[in-house]
Amino acid sequence: MQDLDQRNKKTEQIILLVLGTLIALGPFSIDMYLPAFSSIAEDFSVSKVEVNYSLTSYFVGIALGQLSYGPVMDRFGRKKPLLIGIFIYILAAIGCYFSTNLWMLVIFRFFLAIGAAAGMVAAKAVVRDVFPVDEVARAISFLMLIMGGAPIIAPTVGGLVMTNFSWNTIFLLLAIFALLMFISVAKFLPESGVPDKSVDLKLKDITYRYIDIFKNKVFLTFSMAGSLTIGAMFAYISSANILFTSEFNMTEQEFGIFFGVNAAGLILGSQLNRLALKRLSTFRVSIKISVFLVGLAGILLLNIFTWNNFYITVGILFFILFLLGFQNPNTTALSLYPFEKEAGRASALVGSLKMMLGAVASFVISKFDGKTIYAMVITIFVCLVFSAFLLFRFQAKEKRALIKIGR
User: Fold this and answer.
1) Which of 49, 121, 249, 337 has the least CB density, counted as fewest CB within 10 Å?
2) C-alpha dihedral over 71, 75, 76, 77, to 10 degrees?
3) DSSP for residue 200
4) Contact 265/157 with Cβ under 8 angstroms?
5) Cα 183 to Cα 209: distance, rounded to the nearest angstrom
């Protein structure tokens, strides 16, 4: 019996390792090529702001991909759709490698995201399938730690690649990494989901089910509040390279280190959030954090339009990302509270909404060529103010719901 338990434990560890590398594929696909913006712009004779279109197309692909894979994996199981998604990712990464103009890169980045979305959806679904109820939280925490750690490593790796090779080598490395993922999934990941032929994949049925979820007041409030904070974060992500290499004259390598430090702040916040939740309810933590976020965004806005001090900018951005480490998981948890049977689809919809807001934020930034720094701080401020407004509005109008979710 003990030998059987040890084998089961080892199997679970292997599954977690495979899922962890899968879920890291998304952040790596975003952050690893950020240090290459200048080189891409130079090769394609466009501005760095225009290169942001390739970031926007990725966010759109991730949003649509998550919505699509949810019902598909319910109907056909987890493994086959996942392998197809990874295969799409490999082809798209090779397409990015051979891109000869910006619009080829933008299109292939979209399909890169479609492929990456399979791993993001499958990882959470497989954890729910494989692990006992009392182990699910621990397993997901491990995955979130990897997902949070990936942005620290990715820009640094991208910077090292840029030091020795051309920018498209980054996509060749991503293709090789995805190929290794394809092999590991095929060999080590069991089929954990029972295919459900009753799941209707008609667009009309899928759309109506998502609309019903979106109409729920609790879901609507917290999913949108969380999506707005993600919009603020991606306003920073899509602007950071231009801001710190052009405005503050950082090298691409220095930017990679700086970006990693800020990502570490995000992880630190998410880990300290677990301690905060032992003393306060999820909603109270969210409300308090929203106040601090609006205050910091206001100081950042004042700084950029008056002093434009490098150290104030760096410090404020670090603390905003640190507090987003609290806010993002809390708003996600609160948005999923009303759902038990449809938790998977609700989770997919939350993820999709966040990526949509990320796409909107990066698109807005891309339209302000030459004024990116102002577009970034204004977008961050507006997103965080509206996020806080939704939380306080809910507190004032939905007292019964607050009691149920543990005010």
Assistant:
1) 249
2) 80
3) -
4) no
5) 34
Per-residue b or e along 374-388, where b marks 16 or more CB atoms closer than 10 Å to that residue's CB: ebbbbbbbbbbbbbb
> Distance between CA 312 and CA 310 in Å, rounded?
6
In whole angstroms, what is the distance from residue 389 CA to residue 105 CA? Answer: 38
Dump pLDDT digits (tens) for 86-128.
999 999 999 999 999 999 999 999 999 999 998 888 887 787 6
For 14-55, the DSSP string reads HHHHHHHHHHHHHHHHHHTTGGGHHHHHHHHT--HHHHHHHH
Q: Residue 37 and residue 3: Cα distance in Å, rounded?
A: 52
- Is the CB of residue 325 less than 8 Å from the CB of residue 268? yes
pTM assigned to the model: 0.79
Q: Which amino acid is at 193?
A: G
Length in residues, the chain:
407
Query: Other C-beta atoms within 10 Å of 323: how many?
Result: 22
Give the helix/strand (H/E) hosting 289: helix 282-305
The SS3 of residue 276 is helix
Q: Which helix (H) or strand (E) holds 146?
A: helix 133-164
- The predicted-structure confidence for 202-234, as pLDDT tens digits, reads as follows 888 888 888 998 999 989 999 999 999 989 988
Exposed / middle / buried, residue 187 (Cβ in 10 Å: 0-12, 13-18, 19+): exposed
Q: Dump the DSSP string for 74-85.
A: HHH-SHHHHHHH
Cα angle vertex 129, ends 218, 27, to 5°? 70
Nearest residue to 181 (alpha-carbon basis) of 88, 320, 42, 64: 88
Q: What is the distance between the alpha carbons of residues 402 and 80, in angstroms, rounded to a whole number?
A: 41
Round to whole Å and give the CA distance between 293 and 296. 5
Is residue 127 helix, strand or coil?
helix
